[in-house]
Write a structure and sequence with these properties.
Length: about 325
């Protein structure tokens, strides 16, 4: 562990010489003879661990440790003292120390304890980092599920959208649910409808979306991304480009949303065409029936029916026609 730095806070030259003989070659050594000097040293270049004498000429080691902990330093701190009562050890524990060694020092013990303290600290940091990664992954997964839920809601309700305006409004609502802003245009045989997340689209937004309809399916420029499908064009002006993962997810979701919206607009056009064709057929049938009604008396006469029979036939025809009209 030659890369680790050990700060030794000790005012006794003979004790410092002992520490140097024990740790030289194992760690990069730094020395401070007072508590204030130790605080300055840590502030300038934090070591990996501190061997801290309790009895110092200015402030005691407990206060040094408390100050370091209050400043946010989590490095291992091992107290060394000529006193080792339970009260002394509890005071060291309360100050935030990791271990307590009593003078005179056993060389093998102190070398082992410093190594163990450094190893425990390294494992703690790795665990914290692992926990942070796990938390980040969990938050990403939760965010992804939430975003997918918004898309699923749009798809589930798409069949209920009865006009271009309904579709454009649902698109803008979905953008707002994602925390995004932009505008959408839905168009087809019944004209076109353009809406913005800010309300009515500005003249600039209208001109941009008109140009976007000439681009490829998905086109990006900085924070702006357009999604262009037949019957639907969507422009987002604030894609989260600083978050590649979320930006990629949203790009995929919005592409699906635009495609579903386009399919619904096409379905409305087809429904309108089918309705128009059916109405034309009904109008033609009605016209044929009226023509038959006008020609019915003459047809009855040509068949040799009496006036009474012709009248009965006409009344029967009219009653059946009236019944059909009530259905």
């Amino acid at each position: 562990m030659s890369e680790a730095t050990l700060l030794i806070v000790e005012d006794s030259q003979s004790q410092c010489a002992l520490y140097r003989s024990l740790f030289d070659g194992l760690y990069t050594l730094q020395f401070a003879a007072t508590g204030l000097a130790a605080l300055d040293s840590v502030a300038g270049s934090p070591p990996d661990a501190i061997l801290l004498d309790v009895e110092l000429p200015d402030i005691d080691g407990y206060r040094v440790c408390q100050q370091l902990r209050s400043n946010g330093h989590e490095l291992p701190i091992l107290f060394v003292s000529s006193h080792g009562s339970l009260e002394d050890r509890l005071q060291g524990y309360d100050a935030g120390g990791n271990d307590f060694l009593r003078k005179p020092i056993d060389g093998r013990e102190i070398v082992l304890k410093v190594a163990l303290a450094l190893r425990a600290h390294a494992e703690k940091r790795e665990l914290q980092q692992s926990g942070q990664h796990a938390f980040s992954a969990a938050m990403t997964a939760m965010s992804a599920m939430s975003e997918m839920g918004v898309l699923i809601d749009f798809i589930r309700n798409a069949s209920r959208l009865a006009s271009y305006g309904d579709i454009a409004a649902a698109i803008c609502g979905t953008l707002e649910a994602y925390g995004l802003h932009g505008c959408a245009q839905v168009y087809g045989s019944s004209g076109e409808t353009t809406l913005s997340t800010d309300g009515s689209p500005s003249a600039l937004e209208a001109s941009i979306i008109a140009n976007a309809r000439t681009l490829s399916h998905i086109y990006s420029s900085g924070c702006n991304t357009s999604f262009n499908y037949p019957n639907c064009c969507l422009i987002v002006r604030d894609m989260p480009v600083d978050d590649d993962t979320r930006c990629g997810r949203l790009r995929d979701h919005l592409a699906i949303l635009a495609e579903v919206a386009a399919a619904r607009a096409q379905a409305l056009d087809e429904l309108q065409q089918q309705t128009s064709t059916l109405q034309q057929q009904l109008d033609a049938l009605h016209s044929a029936v009226l023509t038959l009604r006008r020609e019915l008396p003459a047809a009855g006469a040509s068949l040799g029916l009496s006036d009474e029979q012709q009248q009965r036939l006409v009344r029967l025809f009219d009653s059946k026609l009236a019944e059909q009209g009530k259905r």
